Request: fold
Amino acid sequence: MPKPYSYDLRQKVIQAIELDGLKKSEASLVFNISRNTIDLWLKRQAETGDFQALPNQPPGNNHKISDWEKFREFASSHGDIATDTKLRTTFQSTNHAVAAIYSRLVLTPLATAIQTLLFPL
Reply:
C-alpha cells in the first residue's frame, strides 16, 4: 500500500480550497494530486472533523487461530475430509495460515494433503 500524503500537505490543500478560494481542480494541479483525493479528504473532514490519514491496517481479522485445542480436535476428527473452505470458515484463517498450522501440528500426511489442495504446483 502506498504511503499516505503528509498531514502538512493535506492541511495546505484544504486551506487553499477553503480559505483562499482555490477550486478543487486548480488545487489538484498546483499540488500535483488527484481531484478524487481532495474529494476524499473533504468528505473525511465533513464526517470526522479532520482529514487525518486513516491508520494503515489490513482489512479483516488477524487470521490467527487462538484456540489450539479446538483446532487439534477439529484436525483429528476431520483430517480426511478437511477442505480449505471448512477450515477457513471454522477458524477464520487464510489458506497459508491453515497449511502452516497443520505442519506445526506434525500431522505430516494431512499437512501434505492440505498443502497440495491449497497450493498446487
